[in-house]
């Protein structure tokens, strides 16, 4: 029961209610008793005064016999006696049952006592000692407390009926309110259960939600959006990857199918095998690029930092690409001073070679490639610029997407379209940025930064 | 029969063209969407083999455009994606068939034949005219059960006449659908080949199947 919100609320309410009721009941009970006995005491006091006045004025106390005191069971009593206990006079209500009021302590001051009276009822008694010209006299007046007690009892009963009623009403309120709020949660979990791999677009209903539940629904929906996005990205990646693998596979398959259809000259087989070899190479290239993307995407991927000289790295990259540079008759230059940095050398090398390779690949025969290294206080800049085909404005952002290749470049060379997305991932992992300036037909210039201190 | 092959992957297009030509088709090739659309709209092709992913204009867009221009040439889509959605997408806008890359070349041949038959009212891969049987899958011709050996060019001509059996085919149609751009329209190469074909198909048999329709062209028919 205490593991549910409803149970906790009810228990808490019960506790609070009981404490509150106990406090209120005790306080009111005390107050009412005070008020009632106060009134009784006042009355008794006046009565004693009256009796004293009568004694002073008259020798007879016959006056005092009148009024309600003459009724035997009125609950009002008085008694006059000498200090040694001899009764001088008493009310008919006492006389009729031949009862006396006990004297108690007798000094000059008024004393209140409570006793059990002749009718077995509780009496409050006021006794006072006076010295008159006729001698010492103890005047006592008494009144029954049954009626006030009855009143207090009634009050207590009302309280005991009121307590459970208001408690039950409150509980009902709690059950209804929490029930409606919690039924929302039930609906939430129903909705959440409906979100499966196939229905990733389902969301929690946000309209008409309680203020307290809205942030939960919003946060959940936001999370689902992010998940769906990455799910889609993965799916897209897989489908793009398989698409790109299908092309070289079908080149291989078609060559085999058609060449094997009949006996041919050896040259035909040689040509087909060359095509098949080229396609397999392309497949191998696509696969290694896909694996590289997957590796960089992996949460566990981390940089293997070491200190190295960036200018030397640029030199190595250019040297490695020499055959491609020569075959396209390209002039390549490297500018800059030697700068040491702490970074993942292998990855930075990969990024740099990818950029230079693009600058060669998408260049005109006899064009130029320039690699420049600069630094400021915080970071270093590496710029790879070329005099190649350039990239149209509307494609400049897209070329960093996985598998994206421009239509113009498709016609010129082969490629996976993964190079720049790998470059970007490497630079992002180092906390750097990459920017691109290009005008179609004139050339492009890619600049990336690496922070000097990691 | 004339096939338009729209495929941007040049190595693939090249070998498929070679394979189709070896099977008696004349093949036009386009390497991007724009060129493909132009050829589909302006060349008298009998079947179009259309890749989906193309530079400049996608295969689906080409298909949509030619169908909206009332060109009903049968189309086989080549797709590198095999999700159901891609397949249905192609068929919805009027593709007649699709093949997923990498495909079997024999499968491509079979599908092309099936589409060519669907154009006329021929249901089997064997076309029969009187006592002649043309097996379009094997490229074999029999008359009265006897095997006739034809050259590739002769076979292509006979097959074209057979697909259009009962209809007159002009010299112009023949040069366009069979001999592609190789021949000059003015040359009498068609008549030469018709003569070769007659020698092999009709000469030794009582019933003549190839008839000349003066001023119009030729017709292949049984009676
Ligand atoms: N220097 C450049 N000049 C013009 N276009 C470029 C240049 N670099 C990249 N591009 C365009 O961006 C596209 C994506 O480049 P990316 O390096 O990612 O792939 P790729 O070069 O096609 O394939 P890969 O790098 O795997 O061989 C290229 O296809 C090309 O269209
Ligand atoms: Mg590249």
Q: Please provide the ordered H/E string of secondary-structure elements of chain A.
A: HEEHEEEHHHEHHEEHEEHHEE
Summarize the amount of helix of chain B as a percent range.
25-40%
- Succession of helices and strands of chain B: EHEHEHEHEHEEEEHHHEE
CATH superfamily of the largest domain in chain B: Response regulator
In DSSP terms (H or I, runs of 4 or more residues), the helix count of chain A works out at 10
* CATH fold category name of the largest domain in chain A: Beta-Lactamase
CATH class of the largest domain in chain A: Alpha Beta
Structural class label of chain B: alpha/beta
Largest interface: A-B, 24 and 24 residues
Main sheet characteristics of chain A: 5 strands, antiparallel
Bound molecules: adenosine-5'-triphosphate, magnesium ion
> What is the fold-level CATH name, i.e. the topology of the largest domain in chain B?
Rossmann fold
Shape of chain B: elongated
Describe this structure in words.
The complex is a heterodimer of chains A (454) and B (223). The relative contact order of chain A is 0.06. In chain A, helix 1 runs antiparallel to helix 3, helix 4 packs antiparallel against helix 5 and helix 8 (345-361) runs antiparallel to helix 10 (419-429). Chain A is α+β, with helices and mostly antiparallel strands and 454 residues long. Chain A has 10 helices and 12 strands. Chain A has helices at 5-57, 92-95, 146-194, 214-259, 266-297, 310-320, 322-327, 345-361, 407-412, 419-429, and strands spanning 76-81, 87-90, 111-116, 122-132, 135-144, 305-309, 331-335, 340-344, 368-375, 379-386, 434-439, 443-451. Helix content of chain A is 52%, strand content 18%. By secondary structure, chain B is of the alpha/beta class. Chain B folds into 2 domains: 2-119, Response regulator (Rossmann fold); 126-220, Arc Repressor Mutant, subunit A, CATH 1.10.10.10. Chain B starts with a strand and ends with a strand. The mean pLDDT of chain B is 86. Chains A and B meet through helix 4, helix 5 and helix 9 of A and helix 1 of B. Bound molecules: adenosine-5'-triphosphate and magnesium ion. Adenosine-5'-triphosphate is lined by residues 289, 354, 358-359, 361-362, 386, 388-391, 399, 404-406, 409, 415-421, 444 of chain A. Adenosine-5'-triphosphate (ATP) binds at residues 289, 354, 358-359, 361-362, 386, 388-391, 399, 404-406, 409, 415-421, 444 of chain A.
């Amino acid at each position: 029961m205490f593991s549910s919100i409803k149970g906790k609320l009810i228990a808490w309410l019960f506790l609070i209610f009981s404490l509150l009721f106990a406090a209120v009941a005790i306080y009111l009970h005390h107050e009412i008793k005070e008020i009632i006995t106060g009134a009784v005491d006042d009355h008794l006091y006046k009565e004693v005064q009256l009796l004293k006045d009568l004694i002073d004025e008259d020798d007879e106390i016959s006056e005092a016999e009148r009024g309600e005191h003459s009724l035997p069971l009125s609950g009002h009593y008085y008694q006059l006696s000498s200090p040694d206990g001899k009764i001088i006079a008493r009310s008919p209500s006492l006389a009729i049952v031949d009862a006396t009021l006990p004297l108690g302590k007798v000094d000059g001051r008024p004393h209140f006592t409570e006793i059990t009276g002749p009718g077995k009822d509780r009496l409050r008694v006021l006794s006072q000692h006076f010295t008159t010209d006729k001698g010492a006299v103890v005047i006592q007046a008494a009144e029954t407390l049954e009626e006030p007690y009855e009143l207090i009892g009634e009050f207590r009963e009302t309280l005991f009926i009121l307590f459970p009623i208001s408690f039950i009403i409150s509980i009902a309120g709690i059950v209804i309110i929490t029930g409606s709020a919690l039924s929302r949660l039930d609906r939430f979990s129903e909705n959440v259960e409906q979100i499966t791999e196939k229905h990733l677009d389902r969301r929690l209903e946000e309209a008409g939600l309680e203020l307290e539940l809205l942030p939960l629904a919003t946060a959940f929906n936001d999370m689902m959006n992010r998940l769906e996005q990455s799910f889609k990205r993965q799916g897209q990646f897989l489908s793009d990857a398989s698409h790109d693998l299908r092309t070289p596979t079908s080149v291989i398959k078609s060559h085999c199918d058609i060449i094997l259809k009949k006996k041919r000259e050896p040259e035909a087989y040689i040509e087909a095998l060359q095509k098949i070899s080229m396609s397999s190479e392309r497949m191998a290239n696509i696969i290694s690029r896909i694996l590289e993307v997957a590796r960089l995407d992996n949460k566990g991927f981390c940089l293997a930092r070491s200190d190295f000289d960036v200018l030397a790295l640029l030199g190595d990259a250019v040297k490695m690409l020499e055959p491609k540079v020569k075959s396209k008759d390209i002039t390549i230059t490297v500018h800059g001073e030697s700068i040491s940095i702490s970074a993942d050398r292998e990855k930075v090398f990969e990024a740099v070679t990818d950029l230079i390779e693009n600058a060669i690949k998408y260049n005109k025969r006899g064009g130029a490639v320039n690699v420049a290294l600069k630094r400021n206080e915080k970071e270093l800049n590496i710029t790879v610029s070329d005099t190649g085909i350039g990239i149209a404005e509307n494609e400049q952002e897209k070329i960093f997407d996985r598998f994206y290749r421009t239509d113009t470049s498709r016609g010129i060379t082969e490629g996976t379209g993964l190079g720049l997305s790998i470059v970007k991932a490497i630079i992002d992992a180092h906390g750097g940025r990459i920017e691109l300036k290009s005008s179609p037909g004139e050339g492009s210039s890619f600049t990336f930064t690496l922070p000097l201190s990691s | 029969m004339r096939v338009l092959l729209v495929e941007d992957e040049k190595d693939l297009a090249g070998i498929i063209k070679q394979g189709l030509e070896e099977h008696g088709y004349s093949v036009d090739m386009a390497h991007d969407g724009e060129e493909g659309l132009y050829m589909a709209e302006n060349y008298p092709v009998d079947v179009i083999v259309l890749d989906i992913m193309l530079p400049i204009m996608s295969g689906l867009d080409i298909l949509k455009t030619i169908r909206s221009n009332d060109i009903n040439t049968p189309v086989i889509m080549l797709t590198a994606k095999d999700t159901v959605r891609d397949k249905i997408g192609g068929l919805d806008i009027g593709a007649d068939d699709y093949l997923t890359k990498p495909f079997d070349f024999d499968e491509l041949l079979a599908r092309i034949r099936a589409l060519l038959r669907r154009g006329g009212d021929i249901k089997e891969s064997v076309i029969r005219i009187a006592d002649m049987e043309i097996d379009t899958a094997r490229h074999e011709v029999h008359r009265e059960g006897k095997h006739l050996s034809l050259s590739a060019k002769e076979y292509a001509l006979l097959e074209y006449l057979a697909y259009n059996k009962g209809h007159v085919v002009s010299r112009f149609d023949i040069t366009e659908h069979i001999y592609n751009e190789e021949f000059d329209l003015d040359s009498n190469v068609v008549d030469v080949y018709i003569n070769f074909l007659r020698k092999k198909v009709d000469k030794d048999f009582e019933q003549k199947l190839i008839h000349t329709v003066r001023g119009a062209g030729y017709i292949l028919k049984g009676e």
